[in-house]
Design brief:
Blueprint: H1 4-39, H2 47-67, H3 72-76, H4 83-86, E1 89-90, E2 93-94, H5 98-106, H6 112-144, H7 147-155, H8 160-198, H9 201-225, H10 233-237
Antiparallel strand pairs: 1-2
Helix pairs in contact: 1-2, 1-9, 2-9, 5-9, 6-8
């Protein structure tokens, strides 16, 4: 059972996330409209500003996530996501390498220079992903070896001294998970920015549209699978 603060963090972010997804749908419409205008040869004066608006939209997500960072455990298995959406989770968010798969699926023609830069970025991203995966594995192993957790499982109660020791151990675990989450978010953000620096404005709009569409489709499919449950995700997690 989660504590009151955990429930508060969950409800706060769930409310924000639902509104954020609505704005995501609006941005997807704008990106698609921009591409349609481009295909018909119309000048798109807002192309650069639209890209910045979309990037700011993602930055807003990270800012809100940071505000609710005290509920770090929630972000590793967010109750506001469907089970299907959770299958794509990696250290509290999407795996950065997914971005390259989305770009490849677009079939965008790249110059040799762009190709080289993207391959180099792929290599760097893989290395950082591996380091974070190993860090996360170490944290998970530490939870298994916590002796006091085994006591709780066996007897369901602790002495005052044991309770303090468990609280200290859980705080250490929380700090480790938060640091790893922040590093993963930084990698996600930097990968997007570096990739966009390589792409042209039109390629960037196509990429952002594909990314938004993918997220919204996964969201839709996940919710369809769980239709009829009729419950608040956060309330059920408490």
């Amino acid at each position: 059972m989660a504590d009151g603060n955990g429930a508060s963090h969950c409800h706060n972010f769930e409310t924000f996330f639902n509104g954020w997804l609505t704005r995501q749908e609006n941005f997807l419409e704008q990106l698609v409209q921009a591409l349609t205008s481009q295909e018909f040869g119309h000048e798109i004066e807002r192309l650069g500003s639209l890209i910045q608006e979309v990037l700011s939209h993602y930055e807003r997500y990270l800012e809100e996530k940071f505000k609710e960072a005290k509920g770090v455990f929630l972000f590793y298995s967010p109750p506001w996501l469907s089970s299907f959406e959770k299958t794509f989770l990696w250290v509290g968010g999407f795996k950065p390498f997914l971005l390259f798969k989305l770009l490849a699926n677009l079939g965008t023609e790249l110059t040799p220079e762009q190709d080289e830069s993207i391959e180099r970025l792929k290599y760097e991203t893989r290395i950082e992903e591996r380091e974070l995966t190993e860090a996360m594995a170490t944290i998970q192993e530490s939870t298994v070896t916590l002796p006091l957790l085994n006591l709780v499982r066996r007897f369901g109660r602790l002495t005052d001294g044991e309770a303090l020791e468990l609280e200290s151990a859980m705080e250490t675990l929380k700090v480790g998970m938060l640091k790893t989450l922040e590093k993963a978010d930084k990698l996600r953000s930097s990968t997007v920015k570096k990739l966009i620096e390589i792409l042209s404005p039109v390629q960037t709009v196509k990429f952002l549209a594909a990314s938004a569409e993918f997220q919204l489709r996964v969201r839709k499919w996940g919710l369809q699978r769980e239709t009829g449950l009729g419950r608040s995700a956060c309330r059920e997690s408490i």
